[in-house]
Amino acid sequence: MPFVRGGRGPVSEEPSGAGPQPSHLTPAAATDLVTARKQLLRRTDGNKRVDAPALRRVLVDLHDFWLTTKAAEIGIKPGSGFAIVAVGGLGRQELLPHSDLDLILLHDEMDPAVVAEIADQIWYPLWDAHIKLDHSVRTVSQALQVAATDMTAALGLLEARHIAGDEDLSKLLIGGIRQQWRTDIRSRFGGLVDQARDRWRRSGDIAHRAEPDLKYGRGGLRDVHMLDALAVAQLTDGMAALRPDSPGGGLRQAYTRLLDVRTELHRITGRPREQLRAQDADEIGAALRIGDRFDLARTISDSARTISYAVDVGLRTSSNSLPRKGLSKLRRSPIRRPLDEGVVEHFGEVVLARNALPSKDPGLILRVAAASARTGLPMAASTLARLADYAPELREPWPIDALSDLLVLLGTGEHMIAPIEALDRTGLWGRLIPEWGAIRDLPPRDPIHTWTVDRHLVETAANAGSMTTRVSRPDLLVLGALIHDLGKGRGADHSVVGAELANQVGNRIGLWPEDVQILSKMVRYHLLLPDVATRRDLDDPATVQGVVDTLGGSRVLLELLSALAEADSKATGPGVWGDWKSSLIGELVRRCLRLMDGGRLADPGPLTPELIALAEAGGVSVDLVTTDNPHTFAVTMIAPEQSGLLSQMAGVLSLRGLRLLSASVQSHAGSAVNTFLVSPLFGEPSESGLLRQQLIQALEGNIDVIARLDARERESQLPLATGPGGENTQGPAVPALFAQAPPRVLWFDGYDDDSVILELRAGDRIGLLARVSAVLEQHRVFITWAKVSTLGGSVVDSFCVRLPGDGPQTRDQLEEAILAVVPPPAPPREPEEDTGKSGVPIG
C-alpha cells in the first residue's frame, strides 16, 4: 500500500520538497483549520479563555468538521467504499492542542491507483499546513491482521470512531476489532500486562514523582485506556467500585483531572509534552484554578493513586474472569475458606462471609484489612464497596478487638501498605482516622522526601514493623510511626499540633490513659534524638541530661523514640539514614540509659481470694467468663502443678480456636492458677466443660497437644473449623507471612538470687505460648510466674524462671531452642525501583 501506519509527510516550518506534491493541492486547503486552532490557543484574556474540557471539545469539532467537509469534497461519501476513521485522541474525542492526528483511510478493496489519489487529497493538505499526522491506509481485513499481531495497534483500534464516508465499512472494522479482541483476550492478556509493567518501569509512579509523566506513568492516562480495553473484552467494568465521595472522586473524575492538566501543559508549553516540569507547574495550577504547584501536585497525586488502585482491581478482576479452555472448564469453583470472624478467602481475595452483617459489625473493616495484610491476599473491591455503604462508625473508645486488629494490620510491615491504600481510596481509612484527611496526598516541602506525607507515614509504620522486637511496647511503636507527622499541613509546628492529635487518636482507639501520654510524647519529641545527636555536643553532660529530663526519665519512651527515628529516616528518602546518623543516635541513647533507673519488670500481682480458694480445693477446674468486650473472654485454669502443665493449658486453648491475647501464670498451695485473656477466631468459644475435658485428656497423655498444633499448622495457617455461614475450610492453605522483626530473647535480673527473668519478643503464631512453654519444660526450667502479652501481631512474654545450672552456655542453649519455635524473620525488603522524587514538582 502507498501509506503505512507511522509514516509521516513534511512537518517542518518551511515547506519540504520531499515527495511529489500534486499541482491541484495547495497549503491553503487546511488554513482555515490551522487559523481556528491558533485563535483558540491565543485566547487567554479574561472570559474569552476556553477552559480545558471546552478546548478539547472545540478542537474535536474543528477537526471533525474539516475532515467531513474534505471527505465530501473528494467523494468519500456513504456507499463510496471509502471511510475516514479516527483513533487516538480524536477517536476518543479528547484531542489536545498539540496532539497528533491519528487517521485511517479505510477502503473496500478499491483500485490501488484510486486509493493513492484519495489518500493524497487527504494527507497533503494536512502536511502542508504543518499538522502532525499519523496515518495509514487499510482494508478491514488488513487492519484486523495488523491488530492481531501488534498490541499497540489493537489498543488504538479499540478506540476507533467513524468520521466520514461509508459508515457500514467503519462499523465492520470497529465491530471486527472488538470481536477479535474479546476472542483473543486469553492469549493476549499476559502481553497487555507486560506492556503496562514495562511502561511503569520506564516512566515511574505519577503519585510520587517530582516531574510525572501524565500519559505513560503508573496511575496515568494510558492506564485508564488499558482498563477501557479490558472492559471491551468484558473482563471488568474498570470502575473498582469507587464511589463519587471517595478520595479522588472516582475513576472518571481522576482521569478528567489528569487530562485537564495535560491539556494545559500542551497549551502553556506550546508543545506535545507529557511530562509535567517544575517551571510549568504554577502556571498550570493557576490556569486550572487549583492553586500553586503544591496544590497541583496534591491533585495529581490524588488522581493518580485513584487510577492506580482501579488498575490493581481491574487487572485482578480480569485475570479471574479470563475465559477457560479445555480441561480448565471442568475445574471446580474456588472454595471459601475462613480467615477471621465474618471474613473468608475466595478466588484469591479477601471477601465477607455469607452471613456477615456489616451494618451490625463496626469492627469488620479492620478485620478484613488485618486478614488481607496477614495473608497477603487483596481485599475484593465489592467487599470494600459493601463496607463503605453499610459499615457503621466504631464507637469510642474502640473495643479491644478493633484495636487488636489495627495492631495486627500495622505489625505486618510492608504487607500493610496495599490494604491501607485500598481502604484510603475507598474512603474507609478516613472513617477510622478522620485526621488523615489533612495530610492525604499532601506534598512535602523538603525535596529529600520521596513520598507524600500520608504515604510517608505508612512507609514509616512499615519500617517500624521490622523493629518491634527491639522495644518493650511494639504496639506503641507502630502506632507512633503511623501518626508522627499527622500535624503537618495545619499551619503550625507539626510536632506540637501532632501531639494534640495523638491524644485524640489514642483516646478514640481505646488506649489506656498512660499509653495515650506515651503516644503523645512520641509524636511531640519524634525529632528530639536526631536533632540533638546531629547538632549538639554529646560530650557535654548537659546535653544528655536535657534529653533525659525532657523524656521524664522514661526508658520505654527513649527506646521507642530511638526506633522511630530510624524508621522515620528510612521512610524519608535514600541516604537519610546512614552509619553516621545511626552511630550518633546510638551513642546518645546509650548515654541517656546510663542516667536512667533501669527499674524492674512488673510481676503478675496477687491472686484474688476466690482464686486462692479454688487452688486450695485442688483438682482441675476451668472457668470461662465474658468481659466488657463481646469478642473477648477470660479463661481461668487451675490444676495440680506438674511438668508440662502450662504448655498443655495453652495448647488446649489454641486447639479450640482461641487466640491468646494475654496470660498471667501463677501458683498457690501446689496448684497452678493460670488466667488467659482469649478471643475466638470464629464464632463463640467452647464451653468451660469441654475445655476442662480436653485439658484432662491432655494431662493424662491421651492428647499430644504440640503434635496436633504442628499438624494443624501444616494444613493451614488457621484452625480447621467450620467457618461462618457454613463455608468449607478445606482447600489450599492461606499463604503464611513471616514475622516482620527478628525474634529476640532478653535476660534480666530476677527478684532473688535464684531466679532470672526471660523476656521473649517475637511475632505471633498459633500455639506459640504452648510451644515456648514446652521448650522451657523440656530443659527442666521451673517457671515461677509468667506474664504474656499479645500486642497485635507481636508478643512480649516475660517468664520468671529458675534455670538448672545457670550460666552462659545454659542460656545460649535455651535461647536457641526457643528461637527455633517462634516465627522466623521476614526476608529483606526488596528495594523499590527509582521512580523519582516526591509528587511535588520542585525541580
Automatic annotation (TrEMBL):
Residues 634-711, 757-829 form the ACT domain. SMART domains: HDc. It holds the Pfam family HD. Its cofactor is Mg(2+). Its EC number is 2.7.7.59, 3.1.4.-. Residues 1-338 are annotated as: Uridylyltransferase. It catalyses: [protein-PII]-L-tyrosine + UTP = [protein-PII]-uridylyl-L-tyrosine + diphosphate; [protein-PII]-uridylyl-L-tyrosine + H2O = [protein-PII]-L-tyrosine + UMP + H(+). Residues 1-26, 823-843 are annotated as: Disordered. Keywords: Hydrolase, Magnesium, Multifunctional enzyme, Nucleotidyltransferase, Repeat, Transferase. One of its GO terms (biological process) is regulation of nitrogen utilization. Uridylyltransferase (UTase) activity is inhibited by glutamine, while glutamine activates uridylyl-removing (UR) activity. It comes from the Bacteria. Residues 453-554 form the HD domain. Has four distinct domains: an N-terminal nucleotidyltransferase (NT) domain responsible for UTase activity, a central HD domain that encodes UR activity, and two C-terminal ACT domains that seem to have a role in glutamine sensing. Modifies, by uridylylation and deuridylylation, the PII regulatory proteins (GlnB and homologs), in response to the nitrogen status of the cell that GlnD senses through the glutamine level. Under low glutamine levels, catalyzes the conversion of the PII proteins and UTP to PII-UMP and PPi, while under higher glutamine levels, GlnD hydrolyzes PII-UMP to PII and UMP (deuridylylation). Thus, controls uridylylation state and activity of the PII proteins, and plays an important role in the regulation of nitrogen metabolism. Belongs to the GlnD family. NCBIfam families: PRK03381.1, UTase_glnD. This is Bifunctional uridylyltransferase/uridylyl-removing enzyme. It comes from Williamsia limnetica. The gene is glnD.
